Amino acid sequence: MSVATPPASAEQNNRKRLGAFLRTRRENLDPNRLGLPRMRHRRTPGLRREEVAQLADVGVTWYTWLEQGRDINASPKTLTAIAAALQCNDVETQHLFYLAGHVLPSTRVAAACCKIAEHNQRMLDAIQLPAIIETPRFDIIGYNAAWCALIGVDLATIAPEDRNCIWLAFNHPQWRSVMRDWDEVMPQMVAMFRGQMGEHLGDPHWENYLARLLNSSDEFAQTWQRYELGKVENRVKRFYREEVGEITLRQNNWWSASRHGDRLLVYVPDDSHSAAGLQHLMSR
């Protein structure tokens, strides 16, 4: 009588995926571009395992086992060295860490999230409408003068660690006072944040910020406990400024690269009154 083979665990499957990823990445690299010595006869495309091991400063046998999906452990330091040897970009490095059962160090994630390219800032400045660029965690990494005029807050005076749409909505009186339909908008923001965080569970960069939000606002904490999930969508939003009254704008989301990367938010007036009101705020 045959004995059924038990199904592979998620950890075993990830080890196999890790090996396949490493092998594919290695075979797609050009040895000449990496400055490796030319060899007359290469039996396999790309780099050899010995070359990757040398570049990452690890043992050849150990690296071979890692590619074969064996049950061995790789430290974050070693994974970083392997990612560098294989010329992995940020997304590929994050994938490598995930398959190996680690979280990419928060310092690296934070560094990637807190910078805006100069050409992106020029694009923001050229847009004649309120616009910001924010990360999946809702950190504002870029903004223009029109956005500051709309909200009535000069973001240059806000500490970089506080330039976050959710943090400001719950902790900055002026920011909150401008937002109409608070009882509808606030749960949507919290639900979107929870939906985005699902892909970053265990990441200290996200977990620490969640703790900060929970400790700063009982209202946020109570809404968080409702466990509602939301996704980023284009929406119609209402704002209020004493100088012009209520204005209605359409929020349009544009992703810079992948669907889960930084996004550009542009706010377009929904009617002539809102267009005139926004123009008045921007001209002051």
Automatic annotation (TrEMBL):
<dbReference type="GO" id="GO:0003677">
    <property type="term" value="F:DNA binding"/>
</dbReference>
<feature type="domain" description="HTH cro/C1-type">
    <location>
        <begin position="21"/>
        <end position="93"/>
    </location>
</feature>
<keyword id="KW-0614">Plasmid</keyword>
<dbReference type="Pfam" id="PF17765">
    <property type="entry name" value="MLTR_LBD"/>
</dbReference>
<protein>
    <submittedName>
        <fullName>XRE family transcriptional regulator</fullName>
    </submittedName>
</protein>
<dbReference type="Pfam" id="PF13560">
    <property type="entry name" value="HTH_31"/>
</dbReference>
<dbReference type="InterPro" id="IPR041413">
    <property type="entry name" value="MLTR_LBD"/>
</dbReference>
<dbReference type="InterPro" id="IPR010982">
    <property type="entry name" value="Lambda_DNA-bd_dom_sf"/>
</dbReference>
<dbReference type="InterPro" id="IPR001387">
    <property type="entry name" value="Cro/C1-type_HTH"/>
</dbReference>
